[in-house]
């Protein structure tokens, strides 16, 4: 694949790979508690990135300020976002409601990106952000039989909001302070930052017992190789090359694509309302990213 073609395909490839993370979590979470699961995942990806970086003789960050920035962005993108989503579902928040709360990210990012980076958010883009949110809501409502707020876990809502703030702040922080990082060694330091936060939490709040089944191992390998190595690298490349609001809008496509994957893999129903929501989400993203 040529460089120009790969650049054009990056957004679609990122959405597809990122969407599989929810499928991988569905397979793996029954066999390990959330922070334990993520800690194992981070240890494996750190080991893999270290081997790749040493083999390629990749440049390592040397300035203490740069290392601190990478540790902070890794904590926000990996520990706060992933830990928040996994913990929210673990505490009883339906996955659809968690996805809807985290789905507020593109609008929150757009609100902050203008003053912070001087990005101009046009009327067309605001319309796209709102259409995307409506589309995501329709997809999730159709998939989960409605988005009732009855009996929701306040702890689950709190963790989902942590995830929302984490991925929003992490995207903006990476845009501001992580532009010059090597994707191999920089990502390694980011995962170290996330591990330094989540491992102590797992050790103090969870049993850290793991049922090593084939499903768990396959889910873990998929999340390490495809999500942590593939999708996160694409996200960092997109943040480096694009405006924050445009990159954030891609997250609107994740619930529809996840619903499509669930339809293929788990025979879940795709209703007309869900299909309409997918179309609205796609239209909303198109309005935001069109230059």
UniProtKB/TrEMBL annotation:
Q: Which domain of life is it from?
A: Bacteria
Keyword Zinc annotated: no
Q: What is its main location?
A: membrane
Entry keywords, A to Z: Membrane, Transmembrane, Transmembrane helix
GO CC terms in record: membrane
The residues covered by the EamA domain are 13-140, 155-289
Q: Where in the cell is it found?
A: Membrane
Keyword field contains Cell wall biogenesis/degradation: no
- TM regions (residue ranges): 38-56, 68-89, 95-114, 126-146, 152-173, 185-204, 216-238, 250-266, 272-289
Topology within the bilayer? Multi-pass membrane protein
What the record says about family reads:
Belongs to the EamA transporter family.
- This chain's protein is named EamA domain-containing protein
Q: Supply the source organism for this entry.
A: Magnetospirillum gryphiswaldense
What is this organism's lineage? Answer: Bacteria, Pseudomonadati, Pseudomonadota, Alphaproteobacteria, Rhodospirillales
């Amino acid at each position: 694949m040529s460089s120009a073609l790969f650049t054009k395909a990056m957004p679609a490839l990122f959405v597809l790979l990122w969407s599989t993370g929810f499928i991988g979590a569905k397979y793996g979470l029954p066999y390990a508690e959330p922070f334990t699961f993520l800690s194992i995942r981070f240890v494996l990806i750190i080991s893999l990135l270290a081997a790749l970086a040493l083999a390629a003789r990749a440049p390592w960050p040397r300035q203490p300020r740069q290392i601190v920035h990478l540790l902070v962005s890794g904590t926000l993108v990996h520990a706060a976002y992933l830990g928040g989503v996994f913990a929210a579902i673990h505490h009883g928040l339906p996955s659809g409601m968690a996805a809807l709360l985290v789905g507020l990210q593109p609008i929150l990012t757009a609100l902050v990106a203008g003053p912070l980076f001087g990005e101009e958010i046009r009327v067309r883009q605001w319309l796209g952000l709102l259409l995307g949110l409506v589309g995501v809501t329709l997809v999730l409502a159709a998939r989960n039989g409605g988005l009732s707020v009855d009996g929701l876990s306040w702890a689950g809502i709190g963790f989902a909001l942590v995830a929302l703030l984490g991925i929003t702040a992490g995207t903006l922080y990476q845009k501001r302070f992580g532009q010059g990082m090597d994707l191999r060694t920089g990502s390694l330091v980011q995962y170290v930052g996330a591990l330094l936060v989540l491992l102590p939490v797992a050790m103090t709040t969870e049993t850290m017992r793991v049922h090593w089944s084939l499903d768990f191992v396959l889910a873990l390998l998929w999340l390490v190789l495809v999500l942590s190595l593939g999708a996160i690298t694409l996200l960092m490349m997109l943040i480096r090359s694009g405006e924050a609001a445009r990159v954030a809008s891609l997250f609107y496509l994740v619930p529809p694509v996840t619903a499509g994957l669930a339809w293929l893999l788990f025979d879940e129903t795709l209703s007309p309302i869900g299909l309409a929501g997918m179309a609205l989400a796609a239209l909303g993203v198109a309005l935001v990213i069109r230059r």
